[in-house]
Structure formats: C-alpha cells, structure tokens
Amino acid sequence: MISELRIRERIEAREENLSPYAVKSRLSRGRQKAEDPDPVRTCFQRDRDRIIHSKAFRRLKHKTQVFIAPLGDHFVTRLTHTLEVTQIARTIARALNLNEDLTEAICLGHDLGHTPFGHAGEEVLNELYPKGFHHNEQSLRVVDLLEKNGQGLNLSFEVRDGILNHSKSRSNILGEVHNKAATFEGQICRIADAVAYINHDILDSIRAGIIKANDLPLGAVSVLGNSHSQRINTMVCDIIKSSWSCTGLIPGAEPEVTMSNKVLSASNTLRDFLFEQVYQSKDRKAEHEREIVRLLYKYLVDHQDLLPMEYIALSDKPEQRVVDYIAGMTDLFALRLAKELNLAE
C-alpha cells in the first residue's frame, strides 16, 4: 500500500527545516470536519488540489480583472491574476524559508468569491445586499459551503484564514492591521496580490490605450524601474530583504512581512495613479455592467424559481441565495442571462 511508503510523513519531516515562523503542516489547526490524513500529500497540498479542481476556480478564467469580457487574448483575467499572485508569493515564501504549499493554497483560493465585472459588480452587491458584500468573505463562503453542492472543500484553518484576510484598504498596499492574516504565508498573499495587480494593470491599461508608458509617475518609475519585469523584480526583492526577519536568521528581530519605505512609497504612488487614471475612469464607463448586476439582483429576488436548486437549498434567505448565484457568475453568463430575461439589450 502507498501508505507504507510514508510519503507525507517524509514531506512533513523536511518541513522541520523551514523557518521557525513557518507553519508546519503537521501542526495545522485542522479542518472544520475531521478527516484522515492523505498518504501522499500534506494538508496544505491537499487544500491546494481541492481549490484547483473546484468549479469556482475554473470560472475565474471568464471573470473580469479590470477590463470587462476583453476581446484581446492578452488581457489579464481573474484566473491569470490568481496565477501571477501565486507565482510571486511562492518566490517570496521560498526565499524566506516559509511554507510554500500553504502560501500557494491561499493564493489560489483568494479570489474565488469575486463577482462578475470585477469591483464594479462587488460594489453593486455591497449596495443592494442588506448585510453588505465583500469578495474575501464570499471566497470563504465558497470554500466552506458553496462548493460540492453544499459540502464545501473543508479546507484547513490556515488556508481559510489567509483567504479571508487577504484584502487590504485602498489607501495603502500593506493594508490595515485589524484584519491581518494569522500566518506569514497569508500575509505574503496579501502583499503579492498588490504587486501582481499594480503591474499587470499597468500593462493592460497601456494595451487598452487608456494610458501610455510615459504617463507613469517619474518618481515611482525611477525607484521601481522602467519595465514590467524590472518593477516586479524591484518590489519582490525589496519585500524579501525587508522581511528577512521571517527567516529567523536575525536574532531578536520581530518577524514582519513588509517593504522598505522607499519602495512602498513608490508602489503606493503607482497604485494611486492607477486609481485616478484607470480604475475610476473605467468605473465611470462601467455603469452598464453595474446596471446588469442591479437588474439581475432585483429580478431574481422576486423570481426565486429561476435559481438553481443548489442555491435554494443552501440558504433560507432569498437575498443570500441571489448573492451566491450572482457572485458565482462569469461576465459572459451574467450578460447572457440578463438578455434572456429581457433585462438588457
């Protein structure tokens, strides 16, 4: 039998060489429902695989990152964004000798609850749904309940915590302290998320003709670099250097996932530039997509018979059922459904 090879146990033994601040899979705080260990994979590797094989993960390929249902083949989607975040985060985790498998699982699952039409869709659901809507909370609801027809994915505490606490405020890349992830691996996901979207959104905005490369703030570019790869490399290397305390190799140092003031300031300058020149400009043009979400929400609340049975079975509250259904839609499905219901042209 495969269990006789003790593969998982060998992997767990190798994890003892990780940083003292890394989460060892054998010391996980466990799952909501107890399960027998897998003979080959650690609990975090198992979580990663469950996320990759989920329906919500597959739908990310047709969900907006910034540009709605883009026709160009090279625009970033929510799926390619997720993969970029994961790659950046694993590089940082590996350099700091933290748990790569945990980092990867968190990053792959962090945006599963995102709405169609990106943040425009999220804002509309937040306005309409009495309890409010936040994609990080919906991502947790996806893995806890909505996947597998109400069974959920039964992920480990550490992955669930990282998914829930990956979001940050709009004012600073490092975000607010009150909802910091409980693990350094989760904190890496949060900062890698910002590195990824700042840089790929610049490329997409240039590709879409919204900005030109020469429009980027000179002060930020002089610090971070003139090219896409230079800027990512500068940010990632700075995070690694600034967070070296997480390796446990600096006696007495308080571990922290962070950036230097110089690189953080330049990165926030780019982020502010994107909000002013791209996100807010795009938001003014996204009223059609917002209206699609509004119309779908109001119509489906009054026509519960149109909801798939799995959403009806998972909540006794009509508004929650509709939120779960809409949040899971891809851009194209939402547009198609609105047309079929004669809600939009």
From TrEMBL:
It comes from the Bacteria. GO terms for molecular function: dGTPase activity. Residues 78-198 form the HD domain. Keywords: Hydrolase. The keyword Hydrolase applies. GO terms for biological process: dGTP catabolic process. This is dGTP triphosphohydrolase. It comes from Dehalococcoides mccartyi (strain VS).
